[in-house]
Recover the amino acids of this structure.
């Protein structure tokens, strides 16, 4: 087929309209979410003392941190689904959870400590955190990658890493309601480690499946 | 240069609004520019220029299937050249070449430089043979025989909707095969 012929067939297909990447990503995440929620409901569940925990600002802070990861990651991943887009000028959005954590760690340090620092950092659930967040991320990661496949990212690995951040941020939001460790030191250590694992998987898979 | 690129942006806006003729004109207009850039990229990698047409066709397919990622408020050329660079890099990697794509291979094309298609592209044609019968028939009819969607529908006793679906699926399948083979 010569190029003129190919162009003719492309022009004949001009009526075909694809949905926006944001719409496909949203749908894919909504389809994936019940699988993660099912895992959460089956194996974890909301912590028993949730009513009293809500009066603890460090409990609430966990959700601020995880959502400030997930939502900017969605925004940046949609930005990067355009081939000419650069991370430059947008990367600061991904530093929001880091900033929030730094503030939280600082304010906890200024309070009279209920527990020694190492106990707050190690917590009681570190192993569960490292298993549950990646496990609940996997369906969401598959959804995010499916959604971003509809885009045209120039760097598939980077876009895949962002899919990892999206799914880890959402899974960590679920996990935060289960976990009784509220210290920002715990969050900064174990949530971050779990997120790094998911992000690495996202980058690896993304480099294969997000090529267009 | 700026005038040419503004014209592209205008044509693409019309195309997205449903003007098939504007879309056809746009694809014809960008092809020689893509061809020149692909040749330059191949030459830089020490590759013979006769593969340029395969790369041009891959870029055109990607432009078509990913045009919903173009922001109609933005200029068209940077989006187009980003896809072009991407496809050129992919093509060179597939041939096992160390990749040094100059960021300006696409952007700096001179207006006077419009090479004609010399070697014909083989990859799209080869992959065409692997498509399901119906998609192949429809693509052949519309691309090679220049039949309209309506005539193609009549020829194969299909509805026009079914022809459109087969055409789009065929183009998407071709792109996937080119990418993964």
């Amino acid at each position: 087929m010569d190029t003129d012929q190919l162009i003719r067939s492309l022009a004949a297909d001009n009526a075909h309209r694809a949905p926006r990447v944001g719409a496909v990503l949203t749908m894919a995440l909504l389809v994936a979410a019940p699988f993660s929620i099912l895992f959460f409901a089956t194996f974890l569940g909301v912590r028993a003392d949730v009513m009293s925990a809500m009066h603890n600002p460090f409990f609430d802070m966990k959700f601020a941190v995880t959502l400030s990861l997930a939502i900017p990651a969605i925004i940046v991943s949609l930005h990067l689904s355009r081939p000419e887009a650069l991370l430059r000028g947008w990367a600061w959005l991904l530093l929001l959870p880091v900033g929030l954590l730094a503030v939280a760690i600082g304010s906890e340090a200024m309070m009279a400590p209920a527990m020694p620092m190492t106990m707050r950092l190690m917590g009681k659930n570190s192993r569960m955190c490292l298993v549950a967040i990646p496990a609940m991320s996997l369906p969401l990661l598959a959804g995010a990658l499916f959604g971003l496949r509809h885009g045209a990212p120039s760097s598939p690995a980077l876009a895949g890493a962002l899919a990892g951040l999206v799914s880890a941020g959402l899974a960590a939001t679920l996990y935060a309601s289960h976990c009784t460790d509220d210290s920002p030191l715990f969050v900064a250590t174990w949530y971050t480690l779990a997120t790094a694992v998911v992000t690495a998987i996202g980058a690896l898979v993304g480099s294969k499946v997000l090529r267009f | 240069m700026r005038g040419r690129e503004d014209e592209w942006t205008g044509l693409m806006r019309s195309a997205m609004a449903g003007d098939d003729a504007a879309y056809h004109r746009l694809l014809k207009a960008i092809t020689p520019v893509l061809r020149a850039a692909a040749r330059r990229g191949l030459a830089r990698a020490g590759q013979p220029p006769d593969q340029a047409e395969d790369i041009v066709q891959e870029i055109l397919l990607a432009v078509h299937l990913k045009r919903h990622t173009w922001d109609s408020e933005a200029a068209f050329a940077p989006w187009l050249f980003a896809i072009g660079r991407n496809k050129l890099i992919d093509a060179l990697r597939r041939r096992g070449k160390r990749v040094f794509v100059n960021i300006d291979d696409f952007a700096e094309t001179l207006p006077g430089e419009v090479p004609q298609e010399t070697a014909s592209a083989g990859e799209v044609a080869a992959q065409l043979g692997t498509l399901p019968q119906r998609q192949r028939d429809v693509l052949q009819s519309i691309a090679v025989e220049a039949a309209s969607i309506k005539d193609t529908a009549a020829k194969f006793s299909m509805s026009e909707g079914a022809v459109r679906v087969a055409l789009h699926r065929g183009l998407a399948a071709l792109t996937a095969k080119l990418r993964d083979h």
Chain B has a mean pLDDT of 88. Chain B touches chain A through 50 residues (CB under 8 Å).
